[in-house]
Amino acid sequence: MEAGATPLRCFRDCHPVEKFVDDGVETVTSVEQKKVERSIEEVINVYKQIHNLPEPTLLREQHYQYLKKGLRHLSDAYECLDASRPWLCFWILHSLELLEEPIPSTVASDVCHFLARCQCPTGGFSGGPGQHAHLAPTYAAVNALCIIGTEEAYSIIDRYQHTQINTSVV
Q: How far apart are CA 87 and CA 84, in angstroms?
């Protein structure tokens, strides 16, 4: 590891104390949590056995370039996620935020324009332009816009409730 570099969380000394504390009450969630922890531990142990380095190195520049590219274009492999496009924006922007990498202003503006096209006139955001709005993509879109944090991004979030008044007499 480079001098001054922070070890990955799973390699830190505190990692074992962050593991699931079994209180003896078995639930679906606790069983799944233990499975995930065992799986991660196996991967780490295999890594330690076959590599000379004490821990993996995060290839920050390659990750940054891949994420930045993903905000502009995704391969056909992502076609199945067409109704999750605000989520893809959020996940990529959040990853850039975690890497403490800047989001180029032109890319941020393009994401804002795209998410604005996902906003429905009756309120909320859809999974993509022309789709129906619902809570999940609305949550992702608002979070993505907040990560961008520019005036342009904030102006896209319509904070006023849209209601359609039914004036017909029953």
A: 5
CA distances from 1 to 5, 11, 54, 58 (A): 7, 11, 7, 10
CA distance 140 to 85: 9
pLDDT score, position 35: 92
pLDDT greater than 90 at residue 44 = no
What number of other Cβ atoms are within 10 A of residue 81's Cβ?
13
CA distance 65 to 76: 18
From the list 134, 156, 124, the residue with the least C-alpha distance to 83 is: 134
Chain centre distance of CA 29: 22
Tokens linked to 56: 């993996």
Please indicate, yes or no, whether the overall pTM of this predicted structure exceeds 0.90: no
Task: Specify the 3-state DSSP secondary structure of 89.
Answer: helix
CB 127 within 8 A of CB 84: yes
How does the average pLDDT of the chain come out, rounded? 84
Digit-coded pLDDT (tens) for 136-164: 999 999 999 999 999 999 999 987 755 54
